[in-house]
Design goal:
By secondary structure, the protein is mostly helical. It has a domain at 167-234: Alpha Horseshoe (Serine Threonine Protein Phosphatase 5, Tetratricopeptide repeat). It contains 13 helices and no strands. The chain has helices at 2-15, 18-27, 29-32, 42-53, 56-77, 80-93, 98-128, 132-145, 150-159, 167-180, 185-197, 201-214, 219-231. Helix 1 packs across helix 5, helix 5 (56-77) packs antiparallel against helix 6 and helix 9 packs antiparallel against helix 10 (167-180). The chain is elongated and about 95 Å long. The protein starts with a helix and ends with a helix. The relative contact order is 0.05. The mean pLDDT is 84.
Amino acid sequence: MERIFKRIHDSYSVLSDVDLRAQYERDHPDIASAPVPLTKDDARAAERRARLARHPYVAKLTRLHELLDSGRKSLASGDFSKAYTDLHLASRLDPKNQEVNELINEVRHRHELQRAAEELKRGEAAEQEKDLVTAAKCYLNAAHLDPKNSLAASKAAKLLLQPGNDLKQARSLAQRAVDLDPNNADHRFVLAAILDQAGMGKLASRQVEEALKLNPNHPEAKKRQRQKKSRWPF
């Protein structure tokens, strides 16, 4: 019955829309050229159509399609709040609708990516103003909202090197950044500094070696060279 009502609803939507009906007739010239039987009692036919449109299932299906269309448009335009509202209402009409549930997950994901980008910008602004506490919180928020954002993870890890912070968390974030973007020398130098502070000198040296291969002229590389010269002037 559900499939039958859906076909009836889709057919009614096409036939009642001038443009859609014209397009359908162009796509199916054999049907368009066929003689259309006239109803003896047009009033009764119109009444039946109106009664069908008021059927609870048809009304529910129509509303579901309206909410889906609105949700897709809002998602495409970046209005995630409106998209979520429409799709949430659609899910209440049909909780088992796979397309609705997939779209809701996509809205949540894209909204989190947007928030992560905003938190990253806030963190960079706070860091420029030397407000490292706020910057660290923003970077951590960005890394949490977008686990695949290597820059947010690396920046958060770097600021967590400050005394009193969780070095274990800093190492986890720095390792994540390197795993996500292994060809980034900045990420490897951050991980090396954390490993060095944790007393893992050999692992730190390996990260430094890899970072130097990627960028021999990195500022951190020159800084380490100066430190070596100051220790061993010969």
